[in-house]
Amino acid sequence: MEATFAKEIAQYLVAGEVEKREVTKVTAELKPDLTVEEGYLVQQELVAMKLAEGRKIVGPKMGLTSQAKMQQMDVDEPIYGYVFDYMLIENGGKVSLSDLIHPKVEAEIAFVIGEDIEGPGITGAQVLAKTESVLPALEIIDSRYENFNFTLPDVVADNASTSRVVFGTTIKSPEQFELDLVGATLSINGEIKELGAGAAVLGHPANAIAMLANMLAKKGDKIRKGDVILSGALTGAVLLEEGDVVSGKFDGLGEVSFIVT
Ligand code: 0L1
Ligand code: MG
Fold it and tell me: For 27-83, what is each residue's pLDDT tens digit?
């Protein structure tokens, strides 16, 4: 695919994000035969556009890392995208529906990386050795596509539906935990809507970060010291509504919350 066409598709997706409106999936009209590899080319153009606007990358993220999420979205492999600085919401802060299209929330464990991690061949154990700390997080995904309806190449192009992130403020060393056994609940207005454990994420959340390092290596990239990385959802994603008080509680890792206005 020509770089100019990839850029055109990236502009189409960013317009949907900026104008807070759904767009028709890329594979419906613009490029029906879009491949996953081409989806990543579009994503690369989208990331370049944001960097050119002065946005900063907080870290890459993994998505669709659990069987539950893959089934929910009818796709069959994990993907990555990028979290930018303008997407961060402080713990206890507000997420405004008027800034977004049709946001959903999911509970995740985030890794703060202490040393560069360069694939291929990276394992979860190597990731843990290079992880400075872990944080609880709530990710707000907001696919730019109508009704969250997309194929795998579409969602890759759309920066893996990345939209907002609330990181917890309790910073813990990964050695204090068996992260696969960490349980989490996702509550809205005091009612548990979803629950899960770290093992939902490819058996162990560190495995998702290892997979990310190995995927990035295919484009000559790596995980960098200082990256803060979402490892994928422990829970299913729940649609947000105005007035929702959202809370993620993670065993030993703490609580993250926000309100929807
Ligand atoms: O963070 C993620 O799991 C990305 C999900 C992309 C698919 C979706 O929009 O549900
Ligand atoms: Mg996610």
Answer: 999 999 999 999 999 999 999 999 999 999 999 999 999 887 788 778 878 999 999
Which atom of ligand 1 sits closest to the CA of residue 143? Answer: 9
As a whole number of angstroms, the distance between CA 139 and CA 218 comes to: 26
Measured over the CA atoms of residue 34, residue 40, residue 41 and residue 43, the dihedral's sign is positive
For 222, the 3-state DSSP assignment is coil
Q: Hunting for tokens 């999420």 — which residue is that?
A: 69
Q: Is the CB of 157 under 6 A from ligand 1?
A: no
Select from 190, 196, 193 the least CA-distant residue to 259. 190
202 and 188 Cβ atoms separated by less than 8 Å: no
Q: Give the environment of ion ligand 2: residues with CB less than 5 A.
A: 63, 139, 233
In order of their start, the domains of the chain are 3-260 (3.90.850.10)
Q: CA angle, corner 162, sides to 120 and 107, nearest 5?
A: 85
Among 155, 135, 153, 137, CA closest to 145: 155
ipTM: 0.95
Q: How many whole angstroms separate alpha carbon 200 and alpha carbon 130?
A: 22
**Residues 6+ positions from 134 with CB-CB distance below 8 Å:** 109, 110, 111, 112, 171, 172, 173, 174, 177, 179, 253
Q: Ligand 1 pocket test: which of 155, 162, 231, 239 has the largest number of ligand atoms within 8 Å of its C-beta?
A: 155
Residue 155: CB within 6 Å of ligand 1?
yes
54 CA distance to ligand 2 middle (Å): 24
